[in-house]
Amino acid sequence: MRNRDKALKWLADQSANPTQSWKGLCQSSARQAWSCPAWASSAKDAWAAVHDRYKVECPDYKDKSWWQHIPAGAIIYSVPPTSKYGHAWVAAGDMTGWSVDYKRSGYIDLVEIRLKGWASYYEHTKGYILGCQWYEGDGWFKGITKDYWDQKIPPYDNVAAANDDRTLASAAAWRLACRLSDIGYGKWKNAPVKYEQVFPVNAMIEYNEVHAPDMEDKSQYGPKAHERIFEKGK
Prior knowledge:
Blueprint: H1 4-16, H2 26-33, H3 43-49, E1 55-57, H4 64-68, E2 75-78, E3 87-93, E4 96-100, E5 108-112, H5 119-123, E6 125-129, E7 135-136, E8 139-140, H6 156-164, H7 171-182, H8 201-211, H9 223-232
Antiparallel strand pairs: 1-6, 2-3, 2-6, 3-4, 4-5, 7-8
Helix pairs in contact: 1-2
């Protein structure tokens, strides 16, 4: 099996130098990206066959926060009621995805993840799966996990700017909030929203209570926290 980075590279390579026509082969291309055996005969059948515990369902196709937090590499599924086969495509991060036929018939292309040009598929997005659903006995290949952070480390200066001006919404503040949530800090009613999230004061206080208990103002962010949180993962 390929890991996520190699799966995304495979899709990029196929987009630039396809080895075959990918017309109508959405489910096949998504699975071949991960180098996984076939799973069901169509995207529609594949979504139906996946156990519910491995699905992250789309509560509302207009929910931008839900789309923003689809992990790169996840296979997304849409099943319009009038569609015989449905559609599958692969999230690439930053609100983009790899889809067959959307931009060029027979090709894989990097496109806007929500496929708004295909209104029926966009409006009937079912969700994404946490793995590639390849079973061997009782085994299961788990390709990705449901985390908020997009694996991109923000520049320290950008996070520091959000710390200095706590009314400033930024991608850096969003990535800090997502990462803190993923490692267990902060009480989140809803997922952080990119470009709307400001410096996560309460989550930072919780974090520093554990990692810097002698700190006078535990809401502050510094270079040591930046390294621990984003590079060491703790």
